[in-house]
Amino acid sequence: MKWDSNEVVMLFLVWAFMEFCNFKCHLELASFRKNDKKGKGIPKKWGFKYVACANYLWETLGWLTFSILTKCYSSFAFTAVSAAQMVDWALKKHKAYKK
Predict the structure, then answer these.
(1) Residue 21 to residues 4, 14, 97: CA-CA distances in angstroms?
(2) Cα separation of 83 and 57, whole Å?
(3) Radius of gyration over alpha carbons of the chain, in Å?
(4) Is the CB of residue 79 less than 8 Å from the CB of residue 67?
(5) 70: helix, strand or coil
(6) What are the DSSP calls for 30-65, one per residue?
(7) I need a labelling partner for 82 at 20 to 30 A (CA). Which of 19, 43, 55, 92 fits?
(8) C-alpha distances in angstroms, 48 versus 4, 25, 26, 54, 55?
(9) What's this model's pTM, rounded to 2 decimal places?
(10) Per-residue confidence at 29, pLDDT binned at 50, 70, 90?
C-alpha cells in the first residue's frame, strides 16, 4: 500500500506540529531554568501541565509519525527503543519534581 499525496502531506504536517511542540518545550525549559534561580517548580506550558516531560512525549509522537509515514521497520524499532529510554528518564524526572 502506498500513501497518496494528500496522506503524505497530512502526515508531514502532523510530524511538523509534533516537532514544533517539542521545540517549544525546549524553549519553555530553557526560559524556566533561566528564570528559576532555586531550580524548583514545574513548567506548565506546552503539555507540561499534563505530563512531567512533555518534550519526550512530543519527540516520541514525532518519531511515531515519521515511522508511520516511512513504513520502515527499523524506524519503528528505533521509535520503540527511544520511547522506552525516554519513559525511563521521564519517570526519574517526575520523581525529582515531586521532591
Answers:
(1) 26, 11, 21
(2) 8
(3) 16
(4) yes
(5) helix
(6) HHHHHH-TT--S---TTTTTT-TTHHHHHHHHHHHH
(7) 43
(8) 35, 8, 11, 5, 8
(9) 0.77
(10) confident
Residue 75 CB-density burial (10 A; 0-12 exposed, 13-18 middle, 19+ buried):
middle
Distance CA 33, CA 43 (A): 9
Q: Residue 23 is part of which domain span?
A: 5-98
The identity of residue 67, as a single letter, is S
**How many folded domains does the chain comprise?**
1
In this predicted model, what pLDDT tens digit does every residue of 48-88 receive, in sequence order? 777 778 888 999 999 999 998 888 899 999 999 999 998 88
The predicted pLDDT at position 93 comes to 79
Q: Which residue has the cell 528505533?
A: 78
Cell numbers 524506524 label which residue?
75
> Any idea what the Cα angle at residue 62 is, between residues 54 and 25, rounded to 5°?
30
